[in-house]
Amino acid sequence: MKPFLLEQISITQQAFLGSQDAKSLIAKTSQFLSLILHPKNIFFCIESEQLQCLAQHEQGQPIRHLELSPTQLDTHIQNEQLWSLAGQKEKLSRYLPITYLAINDINNIKQDWYCIKLQMTSKPGILIFLQSPQNEMMQHLQEAPLFAALMMQFFHLLQQYRLNQTHKSQLLLRDKQEALYLQEIEQQKLFSSKVLKIQSITQDFIASPNLTSLYKTAIEMLRDMLGFDRACLILADANQHMMHPTFGTDTEGKTTDESDLVYDMEVLEPLMQHTLLHTQKRLEVVENVPLYNERKVVGIGWNAMLILRNGDHLLGWIAIDNLLSQRPLLEYEKEVLILYSNILSTAIAQKSEQSNLKLLHDSAILLSHQETELEICRVAVEIAREKLQLDRVAIFLSYDDGKTMCGTFGTSINGKLTDETHFRGPLPKNSLLELAMATPHHLAFEGAVPLYHDNKIVGHGWNAAILLRNQQRIVGFLVLDNLINKRSLTSHVQHLLTLFASNLAEIISRKRAEESLKKLNNELESIVEERTEQLAMVNLTLEETNKQLEQLSLVDPLTEISNRRHFDQTYKIEWAKACRHSQNLSAIMFDIDYFKSYNDHYGHPQGDQCLTQVAHIIQKHFRRADELVARYGGEEFIVLLSNSSPEQVKARIQAIIDDLYTSHIEHVKSPLQRVTLSAGIASVTIHKRMQQATLIKWADEALYQAKLAGRNGLVSHQQASINSL
User: Fold this and answer.
1) What percentage of the chain's residues is helix, strand, coil (to nearest 5)?
2) Residue 526 falls within a domain, yes or no?
3) Domain containing 618: what range?
């Protein structure tokens, strides 16, 4: 979520807690929506016997608190489409606490109105109508859990204040009604308090160094900060129909490591299994059921399944019960749990992707540093066993495109690394290896089969193999089983293993090429006098090839300008140079305006052509050797300049924006009917106390401000902010 939006949500949450009545609460909410979305009009309405308008806030005008029906309000405002939708509010979900809806007219043509509906069972719904909000920010808010939490906080507080007004006129309420009223107020306060705690917990999720730490943090925060009882985070593998616990809670409320356990999903209750696999629900609660610890019944109470999903992909769930406190699960706590699920799911998905990339990157570097093929295979077996937590792993190489196999390193039945270089022979007739050869780039798998060692059956379990192939030639095989620890092979590990095997095959092939080259050089040295000229030509050819490869690795294949890797390398060099000499360095971030709409309308091939045109327009303005233009990612470009004054930089960037504008590349989905650029400029004299990432961050922030300012323009990062650092 963008820092500015996070800050505004936090400020508004605190402001809510200081509100005294419904009018001040609506005013603060309207102020927030106006600041973030810039709508022309905002209407706050509430469902009753007929729709009632509570307030209207027109852009540039003070808010009006109306308490009028649509018919009465129509004398003030002509808005037939708005009230037509209000009369058809059954189109909005009755089951989701918050619903976003873009309003269409009777011909199903999208209008410039959006509706946000807030509701809960037995309470009148709140409808917020927005005229012409910023579409991009509106779409971003629909995917932001903290914005949803803020809107639900507004909903509960508004209900509370309106309830207060009703209770003031009913002084003779019975004691029971008063107690329920006070309890509900307390629950709203608790809800608001826990929403603030979840915001703090989100930062802890982001700071977790790895997935294991994240899983443990998620369980402990659920107990310690949000006040729930026992909890256990369980990862799900829907393809394998298996579930893998991570961390749980014992009967004394202490955290337990349960990562060695694995279960079939069939052990779940039918209701829980159905909810998990066949619905999109986030929370399922069952009351008065046996509660277990280590498969033994230890009490009776409620049991909840808080489901974690990344889009349609099932990540797992958190099992929660009330064994320790025996208190009921309140309605507001269910809302807290659903918000927690959304935030944790996002954190797990992001951390998992980071972890995968780091594992593959680190392993590729480690393997690349090995001197021989055998050393590469030895290290690869160790990585597969230690990092991927596999049992027995072995690697066999082939030097004749799969006709014969040569052993390298494997694993004994005791889990020890073994030297198997003594094995050499023709490829055995084996169904697993045949399947691996028939399905390259996929893991061949056989479950519940005999497992062998030295041609003797030593157990039963699953057996798997993957073909190591590079440039259509078979390099060898990677084979594995679960003889020792009997772990299941999850879909996640299978995917990682496939990528790991691809890297391994490429590294082995490269090492073979290097060794072949060394052999060739040794042979050439024996006939130096006769073959000097030929050797020189070979070396020159190799050097040119390496240069071409290096050049290709630094060029974006689509736009034919520098890529992100080239920029990162150059940026480090230029930063060090500017730091040594206290020179000025400038970074300019570009982003094509409304490019997603362009792709959606014209198609990706035309989108690629548009990217190339824009890249060439930017490139032609920077021809000097010390000026770098690069594609930063997607529709973003970046320029790095040294020893240029802020005024010079600004003038040159404005020239690029004007050049593209006059090129008139058609874009019917843009308000300007043409392709335009927004730019963010950061220009500063570099000092040793500054961090390298600072300049790029400032340029990105300036680009964001340029977007907010209406696009097709530039914004320079404020010099005052730079000097303050």
Assistant:
1) 45, 25, 25
2) no
3) 564-724
